[in-house]
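Schema walk-through. Below, the input block comes first and the output block second. Nothing else is stored per chain. Lengths vary across the set, and this one has 363 residues.
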Amino acid sequence: MDEKKIKDEKALENRCPSCKASIKYNPKVKKWKCDYCGSEFTLEEMQKFKDNASTEEKNKKEEKKQEEQVYINYHCESCGAEIIADEATSATFCVYCGNTAILQSKLEGKFSPDYIIPFQKEKQIAIDAFKNLSKGRPFVPRDFNKETNIEKIRGIYIPFWLYDFNVSGDIVMDAKIVHSWTRGNTHYTKTSTFQVTRGGKMDFSMIPVDGSTHFDNDIMNTIEPFHYNELIPYNHAYLSGFYAEKYDVASEDAKEEAINRAIRSAKDTLEADAVGYTSKIILNDNLEAKEKSTKYALLPVWMVNVKYNNKMHTFAMNGQTGEFIGNIPLDKRKVVLYTIAIWILSLAICIALSYMLYITGGK
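--- output ---
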């Protein structure tokens, strides 16, 4: 997909139409809400406010039409992640590795997704889910739920490529039908073998592939699916108050994974169409995937990485559906103490029972 030039507006600089203070998108009310005057605005109202800018501002924008978009970029020296945030963000750690040595710089580049799914779950829901992970788990480290970790929960838009494919072709299978019966004392088995062919054409849409090497694919697979029918045209205003990672996997490099997923799904569908057989083995296939379109989208995730015993433990929540995964560490010291306590208690009970039996036997 060709990269597009960004509009000349300053990135993520959203101002309240009422009081001109900085304003952020609020997932709970699905509007931009000002923390200073309490006013709420829809995207249309925010756009209208920008369209009514002064003549002087419009002239300045006209002069800068050919300039590239400038974003604030936080570069982590530890893991190399490049996180894009609004100009008001004061980042002191990396959302991926927890490293505190984050350098602030200007990212001059083309960063224009086609679509975005705005956050629909607010931060408090993510915090509550994070806290609930420890409930009923006595071996969770005491410091896991401390306030400094909770404060690090951040909303981040993860870059994704969404592919549409047309898959056509056929598969050839070795299929068997096995019949068994008993006559008198003799058991019979008859096996019939067939060569079965199935073919067809299938359309696949919105096959997602992670465009970031820093976000674990297993984590994304766990908190999926996203409802892609809620994709809307990208507008940088939705990034206010959140982070957004710049993709580091190009569309062409990610395409192979999407092709494999489409062909696997087509193969499974064609194989399932051959019914009535006891067993089936695919001998060969002649399936080809043709790309119809590719879209670049940002998907919402609440996440925090907690470092414990030099290992990162990840909590992530789907910012649209609320589905989450928690990689919870165990406090080995607690496990040992608990085991010792159980052993001592069991020994004490055995001694007490033995003493009672001794006393009873003595009578």
